[in-house]
Amino acid sequence: MRLPSLSLQAILLFATSHIARAVYPDEVGDVDFHYDLLGVAQPSTTFFHRPRKDEKASLLYTLSDVGILGAVNPSNGAVVWRQVVSRNITNGGGFLRAGEGQTWLAGAQGKSVHTWNAFTGRNSWWMDFGGEVKDLEIMELTENGRKDVLALFEENGSLVVRRLNGEEGNVVWEYRHAGHDVPVQVSNNVNKVFAVSLNGSPSSYSLKVSVLDTLTGRRMEDIVIGTKGDVQGQQDIMFVGANSAAPIVAWTDSAKTKLFVNVLGSKAKQELPLAADAVDIDIHAPHLPQSEPHFLVHTRTETGNRADIYHINLKNNDISKAYDLPHLPGLGAFSTSSDAANVYFTRVTEEEILLTSSNSHGVLARWPYKPGTDVESLHAVSEVLKKSGDSYAIRSAVTSTSGSLVLVRNGEVEWTREEGMSGAVAAAWAEIPESEELAKMLEQESHSNPLSAYVHRVNRHLNDLQYLPDYLSSIPRRLISSITGGSDQQTDGLTRDSFGFRKLVILATRRGHLFALDTGNHGKVVWSRKAFDIPEGTSWDVKGVLVNDQKSEVLVKGSRGESIVVKTDTGDVVEVTPPGSHPAVDSAVIVDSPSGPWLLGIGPDGEVGDIGLDWTPKQTIVVRSGDSEVIGIRVSHDGTIAATTISWSFLPPNGQKIVSLTTRPAHDPIASIGRVLGDRKVKYKYLNPNTLLVACLSENGSTLTTYLLDTISGQVLESASHEGVDPTKAIDCVVSENWFACTFFGQYRVRDGSSQSLKGYQLAVTDLFESDVSNDRGYLGHAQNFSSLDPVDFPVPPALPASVSQSWIISAPIDHLAVTQTRQGISRRQLLAYMSESHSVVGLPREIIDPRRPAGRDPTKEEVEAEGLAKYTPSIELDPRAIISHERNIIGVEKIIAAPTIVESTSLIFCFGIDVFGSRVAPSHQFDVLGKEFSKVSLVSTVAALALAVVALRPLVGPPLFFFDYQGAYIFRSAGSELTSDGRLLCSPA
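^ thats the sequence. predicted structure below, dont judge the formating
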């Protein structure tokens, strides 16, 4: 197939291309958007705290379910600071505590315990231990007045309690119990430390409390509460108080019909009744040691929720019920606030916020929501301020069912943070749909005869005249906005723009939620929907996403056989297949069929299942079997059933395992089939759309080998090896056009004739051409047809590409590689990558990573002019000007996707993971769009000034002058003059 030749514009574009800034400062916030997310707040690690002793202002702190510790300004919802506590996205867990009046926070995740400055977020100290942290608490009262940290560990089957110096982090004392108890939580009072654990065997536990001395950590006694079988597991433990304000441990039976409570330090347990239809139990208690020992039991049922308040008598360890709060519909949430000894309980309902005291059931204050406010609360934390008299002020940070963090101040929603978008696992681009009514009309016209279609179209145009007045009235506004450079885009509804910058991104999160973002409206969330209920501690494993722009639908398929189809513009559910309805799948791939593209699920060992006649895939399906085999499968149909045939298989050499498979993007147009060299010759690109890059690691993990396969025949087209690779660091590859790139941490040999080598992060790039020789198409140059299975009809060597490779040491690690996409592929491609250490997205032009850069010599003038080559240097210093994300701090990017726009110069990019970031990039500058720096006002003003000048000077200029030759002299005839019969010139009186 002959590709269209480049236009003059494209030739000039390539001839004048050069490295430019990725984004200008005045474009930040205009062409891009960023959600600096923390993650969904966890109830036990979210609270208000004053970071400075002498100030009354407090911040909202949280350690989220994705391992991000951060502080939020309650006034506007802005992030004050963030820290990555866990480098991998977690499934919840972790601990965060704050000491009253202290300027630091104590946290724990995994095997680490650390403290942070509450105002700046700087790490004070970080300690790693051999076991996993099971609980963390602050010792509010110590012998020296210093507040220390208590940490409970499980190390090699042993229960370990450590007291850590709150200022320095060193171990003050350590208690270790070598039994098989399961550690649960730790608590303390003035002179005792309580380590609560499960004693016994699985499904038949009893509670055990080890009482330790606060000064030395010496075990004073062990208290076994109840009998074997009282507790089935840790899920039955509802609450363990941190200090003397809540000195209890509470658990339920398996049926959740009874609540058992023990006052720490005593052996007796008390039984409290629960509602018969209880489905969930939460216990809320104060955290200040000087607060009254009161606690609230929040019971959720299928239809609503209620609460019971209990008081603890510390003298006789008796627990009595004070009052209860009525059953109200909806989920609802409760939170606890303390003011010295006073304890307040805040109730967040679907209609209002209620404040009560722990001493009495009387409502101290209530704040109804404004009409139209919808707060679906899962849990909340509150801060109560008592004003003069009996008035109160309150602000509550509510976590909604979608994961959003909402701050409600005195019944009014102040701000909302879309934290549910964190932990994204898949995303896809979708076009904004056209008007449904117009689509139906056009479809009707296409299925009718020409005459009726013409009549129908005339009637449609006549009907559109009703919108003419609105269109005419909008012209002045559009004209003014066009001149001033403002935006006339209507953000209330979804409409396409003329440049194609406005698209939808469908985002799927690990929690089973779907979001739609409008890229043309600063990433505004158009809709969100819960797709499936994901069990706690697990993630939604999305295997494939397919967008059907014709129907405005998106299909999302998961690993358990579940799938959901929703409308891209509204989020309305079209079809749902619950988990288990279909066999589980290991992967999913978009295939072409006689009925159009569809999402094919691949089961274990490459099983494709039953396929209908109209849905038979047209292409070879490549599947991965384990860590050591890649299989090419063809699906055929005999009219009744589908049959699969293994057309080829690839097994890497013994001792190698597959770490990644990479293919070309679905949209990867080729604007030029060759590359013009400095001597005006052409090297023809190897443009095979059926290629697959397989990256393999050796068993010892020190050698990375890449194989480029032909997916039709399974033939190895090219291979390369890299030594000294660190398998614990990121290995990522990308394929585009006729080149591919891989990044890894490995050994780099200096090419100066010596045996020196360096260790560092590398970027290896390979270009593929049809022949080593210029102006040569290789063995297939004159072939009319080509087949990977039967390349030519006469015996010649295999038609393998000629490769040119080069590698560089880069100044910072990069991963999650991607390539920009434009509509026709005329603009130069840009390599996109995430810089995990600096939390940035960088764009590397192809000129920098061109493997044809001459090594050991300067490029010739012709090479510079024709190819833009520069002398090869073994290292690449990532230029801050190439940072696409500018100064934004983008955390936890897991993937980068790109999409073309209508204009050729611009590509859209979208990054997701923990944060969400979207932007527009122009790898070859915006040659077809006026930039933001272009002053339309100056242009219009100049034209208007010239027009006024012409009008002003017009009276000063008379009719045209005529020239006469009179006796060798030229005479100018002006306005009002005459010539006599003898040729004399008569002038007018003027």
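The longest strand covers residues 757-769.
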